[in-house]
Amino acid sequence: MSFTTLDLSYPCPGIARVRLTREREMNTLSLPLIEELNLAIDEVLAARSRVLVITGTGRAFCCGAHLKYFAGPDAIFTERFDTRDRYFDRIARLFDRIEAIGIPVIGAVNGFAMGGGFELALACDFRIFADTARVGLPEAKLGATPGAGGVQKLSRFIGRGKALEWILLARHVDAAEAATHGLAYRVVPAEQVDEESLALADALMRLSPLALAQCKASVHLAGDVDLRSARRFGVEALSALVASADWQEGMAAFVEKRTPNFAPQGKEQD
């Protein structure tokens, strides 16, 4: 499938990379980009890829909503409020989908990640930051509020007090400060972001895809339900895993003192 707003490639077996290519528009979330990113995820999962890397081109990873839809000669949402609301909902659903898919997702944050772009990065399981990257939720400057999960995720990741500071002051936060709050897996020179993201993807490729999917689901569930329910999910997940081919392969490799060879799964979780 060919795309006009992004590039989908497979730089290594089992590893898919989506690169947003709306460089002149700072990779903002146009309607075609939202649609194509969903289609790209469909293709990635159909190919049974085991890791997904999302990155951008130019100065930006992604700068969120396409503001030209709201003001100026190209505005389309000034009176079509139902269409506007569906646009916001489509963004939120896309980010929920990225967070929920049963393979690890790496955000290779090559530059600015603002508003919805930061929310996209927060939906990823890992974030590798260029040392020149800047992130933030500056919606208060525009008379808006983050609406695609950024408030909730950032509050959980860095605490309510610091999240209030970043959001209410509409701060632009540099990569080094973001890393001090645990938001970055690595901060590297900008020219090394692609290399570092593929190195992380390669490390994840060596692990059981079934186990990674269950571990990811367990971590996300832990913040959404009570401790007893989360623990019960963990027990059920473990019971399912020990009946799987991945468990058999992992145990055999352990006994035989060799590297396990896990089959790909690439399933989208419900």
UniProtKB/TrEMBL annotation:
Q: Which PROSITE patterns match?
A: ENOYL_COA_HYDRATASE (PS00166)
Gene Ontology terms: biological process: fatty acid beta-oxidation
Q: Which domain of life is it from?
A: Bacteria
Report the GO molecular function annotations: lyase activity
Keywords from UniProt, A to Z, are:
Lyase
Q: Name one Pfam family in it.
A: ECH_1
Q: Which InterPro entries match?
A: ClpP/crotonase-like_dom_sf (IPR029045), Enoyl-CoA_hyd/isom_CS (IPR018376), Enoyl-CoA_hydra/iso (IPR001753), Enoyl-CoA_hydra_C (IPR014748)
Q: Which family does it belong to?
A: Belongs to the enoyl-CoA hydratase/isomerase family.
- Record's protein name: 3-hydroxybutyryl-CoA dehydratase
> Which organism encodes this protein?
Xanthobacter flavus
